Amino acid sequence: MSRRPFILADRAGGRGPPVIRRPQRAHCDREVAVSRFMLTAVPFTGHVAPLCAVAAALVARGHEVRFYSGSAFRGRIEETGSTFVPWNAAPDFDENDLASSFPRLVGKKGVGQLLINVVDVFIRTAPAQVSDLMAEWERVPWDAIVGDEVSVGAVFFAERTGCPRGTFAVLPLNMVGPGGPPSGLGIAPGRNALTKARDAALRAAVPLLSRPLRAPLAAARAAVGLPPSPRTFDQVVFSPRLVVASGSPLLDYARDDRPASVHFVGAVQQLPTRPPSLPDWWGELDDRTVVHVTQGTQNIDPEDLIRPALEALGKSDVLVVVATGMPGRDVLPFAVPSNARVAGFLPYAELLPRVDVVVTNGGWGGVLAALSHGIPLVIAGGDLDKPEVAARVAWAGAGVNLRTGTPSAAAVGRAVGRIREDPTFRDAAARVGADLRGRGGAPRAAELFETLPAE
């Protein structure tokens, strides 16, 4: 039996944003009644893919799921059994060409890129996201909304309507707590009086560090009819009710100050729905030491990491398998050594069981996938959340942090050599992998999100 949807009603006197009246539920003798979910993800592959796995798990459990994201992901979303809802009023941007939609990003990297990403891509698109969501809601309401941690439009929608909201953290958990430093700085929590004092000072500085976000957040709230709020960006985006986080406490510095609303569910990956297409050279992976090199799907200039990795490993006794990060881009703009093979995308379910070391720019989803297979990593994390990912993996002992997004060939070579020679890296990766695999993944996430409409 389906739950009856919420009823949208005006505030008394017709003033202010609409609110929700929850109807009385009919009796249901099923353990979990059918619910209507809206999932939202900013249209980046690393955000959409794990939420697609959650969507598929919810559908498999009998729920009705709609999924709001960019048109490039329509096919992937519909394969989960979800109904695709496109960014319409919101700018339907191309993740591989962000500057076309957000020109302030031209030439930006590092902190400058991060701030503009947050302001232009996440915050300033939020009013248009709310417009899209309200239009779909007025067509057919839903019982709960789940967004990734940068879907600001989902936050504003839930605040306007009172719809139950959960957060699915597709990135390293960037939640300021009462202990440790703010996430995102690539700094491990302090263990002595001096470093703990440093952490406290950094936490106190969060309002100041987030000052450039205040005016854009206030403007976006006003644009959708919400009152001013003193909350910082990280306080806005995480649901106080339920945060389901990809990853493991072993990749969260084993912090003990996370609220009870946070649940880690390991690596959340969408399983392929059809047999993958494998390149002609796939059989060459047999009985070889394989090093996989990837720069993910953003900041994919191959000069940053792929070229130095190939220079470092071109004369070694390994087979180097490179993913360029763009479908169809199976060649590089420079000559590659004879022991290298190149493809745009590669099926990780088939590739990773054959890989010995991963050299990566630190995309969270790829890192979790590698660690789930017990593979140690060399991470060149230069932008956005990548330095934080690199720091967490190094803290867990499962890889080497190169501390730059543009390493030298010599640095890459030394790091790969360390991992191949020192078994403690593989041992640590195996420990993290076992924990990731034991946390339930997408089915556990779906089970947790089922509690949202029930309260």
From TrEMBL:
Residues 310-436 form the Erythromycin biosynthesis protein CIII-like C-terminal domain. GO terms for biological process: antibiotic biosynthetic process. This is Glycosyltransferase family 1 protein. It comes from Microbacterium lushaniae. One of its GO terms (molecular function) is hexosyltransferase activity. Gene3D superfamilies: Glycogen Phosphorylase B. Keywords: Transferase. InterPro entries: EryCIII-like_C, Glycosyltransferase_28, UDP_glucos_trans. The keyword Transport does not apply. PANTHER family: STEROL 3-BETA-GLUCOSYLTRANSFERASE, STEROL 3-BETA-GLUCOSYLTRANSFERASE UGT80A2.
